[in-house]
């Protein structure tokens, strides 16, 4: 069965990023990686604060920031392959490789995705997991909070404010993994949900 793994953009500075890229590549054919926005999304936030352009424009730019981070991940690990839509994702999975989702073609203008900062890569990972019929979702964060209830996570700022809605719509298990948990990723992948 397929699982979706959101790799936090804040791992771009963590030495553990290389470990995560290796384990994600080794899980080829079984997972789809959703990249965070990392420093590229931070640049969008800074530009919006400076110039005051609309949230809709910032949303589109943040989707492209996720794509930039995703392309960086693919450039760092040859076992990761960029994929834009379910058909691309399926082609990569069938080859036993790990697709890294580039979200803009599916998300720009999608009626069920608010064009604001209330939706970030966490919510988009849950949205994609539901769309693909995944059996589980993992969010790889810099650190892991104690309370992993979606509402508590949103209230504490661990995920975006729309995440509880998207998590409920997904309706399947969601796990949080810390940056140092790459060595145990295989256990999560092998564990039935």
Automatic annotation (TrEMBL):
Pfam family, one: AA_kinase
InterPro entries named in the record: AceGlu_kinase-like_sf (IPR036393), Asp/Glu/Uridylate_kinase (IPR001048)
Gene3D superfamilies, per database record: Acetylglutamate kinase-like
Domain Aspartate/glutamate/uridylate kinase residues, every copy: 1-142
Protein name: Aspartate/glutamate/uridylate kinase domain-containing protein
Organism: Sulfuriferula plumbiphila
